[in-house]
Amino acid sequence: MRNLRHRRELILRLIARHALSTQEELVGALAAEGVVASQASVSRDIAALGLIKAGGRWAIRPEPAPVRDPLEERVREFLLSVSPAGPNLLVLKTPPGEAQALAYALDGLALAGLVGTVAGDDTVFAAVEGHEASDRVARRLRSLAGLSSGSRRA
To answer: What one-character DSSP code corresponds to residue 95?
Structure first.
């Protein structure tokens, strides 16, 4: 098991340093490092390590981009400011024509404490359950939109 782990770690180092395009080249590079391995073993190592061919050479598979929630993306894109208007209401500002999209996203996110939304052209009224819910929902929305407390994005 130790030899297997060592060989696979060495394969990762070798493909990072050298343009190796075939399993035979990889077997040769391992041999040059003092590690004897068959082509069949290297083939299993490649599969286990999840290596791919990129530009005709072996490479480490890139990490997939994190999947983003499209509703959260709408909040990030359209929310310009969050202002409390009493204990049960938040006033949310958007660019002109984007309030409906933001309200739809908020309703879809089903944030705890958010009761519902009403949208105009560039303003969304968000009804919340009370003062604590207002603070919690406002913090969450500001966080999603990258706003600091009391800030407004242009």
So the answer is: S
